[in-house]
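Order emerges. As here.
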Amino acid sequence: MTHKQSLSRRLILQAGAATAALGAPGLLLAQPKPVKVGLLHPVSGALAYSGGQSRMGGMMAIDEINAAGGIKSMGGAKLEAMLGDSQSRPEVGVSEVERMQQDGVSAYVGCFASGIALPATQAAAKYNTPFLIDVGVSDALVSRGLKNVFRLAPGNGKCVDDAFAGLAEVNKAAGGLAKTAVIVHEDSEFGTSTAKLLNAKLSGIGLEVKEVLPHATPTRDFTNLVLRIKAIKPDIVIMSNYQNEYVLIARTIFQQKVDLAGMFSVLGGGFNYKLVKEQPDVAQYMMDFNHWYSPRNPKAQEMRRQVESKGGLFTFEVYCTYNSVKLYASALEAAKSADKAAVIAALEVSTWADHFMPYGPTKFVNGQNQGGRAALLQASKTDIDVVWPNEFAGVKPIFPRPKFG
C-alpha cells in the first residue's frame, strides 16, 4: 500500500468514526456540566445522628431531582452531591467549606448546628457562594448582612414568640396552673441564644423563671442537674439542646419521678420519632415547638413512608434538608445557570411553594423566609401530633400531664 493510499484510508476511517459518533444516542449534544452541591453536616462526633439524618434528606432530594430530568432550564443538568463532615466542630466545618470551594462547589446546604453554621457561612461569603441553612436557628445567621445566606425555616426569635403564644393558650385552657419554670440549655450558640430569648419573654405569659441551667455538649450524666430541678419544684421544665442530651435529661427526669405539669421544649433536638420509638414511656406527654411538616400533605406522607420503609425515622432534619435542596434547585431553574450571583438574585425574589412545610410561598428578607413557621407538638407512646396552631392540629394537648403513680 502506498503512502497516499494509507493516508486516504485513515481519513475515511476518521470520517466514519465521526459520523457514527454524531449518530449515537446521547452523543449528538454535549451533556450539561453537573452542578456540585455541598452537603455539609456533622456526620461524626456528638451531633452525628442529626447530621446523618440531614444528609439523608439532602441525598433524597438530589436523587429525586436527577431522576426527574435534572434542571430543565439548564438542559437537564444533574446535581452532584459533594459530602462534607464537620465532625461536630466549627473549625472543621470551615475547613470543609474551603475544601469544597477548591473542588468547584456551586452552593452549600447545611450545617444543622448554628455554632458550625456561623463560621461556615462566613467562609462561604468570601466566595459569594450561596449557602442554604437547613437547620440552624440562631438569628445571628441572617442578621450579619451576608448576602449569600438563605434560611427556609424560622429562626429562634420567631419560634420563641410563636411557642409562647401556643404555650400560653394551652396553659390558659388548663386554668393557668403553670406559674414557674426552669430553663435547661446546652451552652453553644443554639442553646444559649434560645435560652436568652426564653428567659426574657416567659414573664410575658405569666411564668416566673426560677433558674437557668446550662450544660455542655456532650454530657453523659444529668443526675445532679435533675436533682436540682426536683429541689426547685417548677411547674414546667423548658429545654433547648441536642439529640443525646435532650433524651438523657428527659429519661433522668422520668426515672427520678420529678412531678411537673409539663416538659416543654423550643426546638428540642431530641424530640422526634426516635424518642417515641426507643423511649415511649419517657416521651409520653412531652411537648415541643419545632420544625414540622404539614401532616395533611400527600408528598410529606409519601416521603415518610419511603424513609420508614428503609428502617429510617422521619425526623425534622430529613425534610428540612430535603426542602432546602429543592429550594436551591428552584433557584437554578429560575436563574437558568449555576452562576452564584444569578442564583443569589433568584433566591432574593423567590416565591417557591413546592414544599410540604406548613408555609406559604417563600419571601426572603435579608435571607430569612418570612413565611416559615413551626408548630406545637405533643408525643404519645406511639406517635407525635400537632396540637397547635389549630389549623394544623390533629388532636388537643394533654396538659397538665398525669402525675407519677
Q: What stands out?
A: The chain is about 40% helix and 15% strand. Residues 15-28 have pLDDT under 50 and may be disordered.
